[in-house]
Amino acid sequence: MLALGQQGENVGLATVYRNLDKMVSQDMLARIIPSDGSGAKYEYLETRALPDSHYHMVCEECGRILHINCSRLAQLADHIESDHDFVLDSRRTILYGRCRQCAKKPQ
Q1: Which helix (H) or strand (E) segment is 32 a member of?
Q2: Fewer CB within 10 A of the terminal residue: the chain, N end or C end?
Q3: Each residue of 56-66: pLDDT tens digit?
Q4: Beta partners for 95?
Q5: Cα(101)–Cα(107) distance, integer angstroms
Q6: Residues 100, 66: contact at Cβ < 8 Å?
Q7: What is the domain count for the chain?
Q8: Which residue has the higher pLDDT, 3 or 13?
Q9: DSSP-based three-state secondary structure for 31
Q10: 29: containing domain
Q11: Nearest residue to 96 via CA among 47, 37, 43
């Protein structure tokens, strides 16, 4: 149990995850699940000044989440839709790789 609130009310983890799922379905949060199997990460979307169509990049080394609003990715999404009959959800599309700082490090 988690102790939350000023009165020290106990809240179960199931309640926390249920509320996270609800916030994702209401587009208040974006859920990002790293490819390395580590736990999901959540991003609060309500106050972000990002366009509806933006993509996420996740560094597989440090876990940093980067946002990208790129016309070339929008063109790729248009191509996938028109030529392959598939519509990408840009807010849930994640590109994995290494950020600039991690790419500079020797492997």
Answers
A1: strand 29-32
A2: C
A3: 888 888 888 88
A4: 57
A5: 12
A6: no
A7: 1
A8: 13
A9: strand
A10: 2-104
A11: 37
Q: Output the six-digit token pair for 12.
A: 């179960």
CA distance 2 to 30: 23
Quote the percentage of the chain above a pLDDT of 70: 81
CATH number at residue 7: 3.30.1490.190
Nearest C-alpha neighbor of 47 from the set 64, 66, 30:
30
Give me the residue label for tokens 């990208």.
68
d(CA 87, CA 92): 12
pTM here?
0.57
Tens of pLDDT, residues 47-98: 555 555 678 888 888 888 888 888 898 899 999 999 999 999 887 788 889 9
Q: Is 96 helix (H, G, I), strand (E, B) or coil?
A: strand
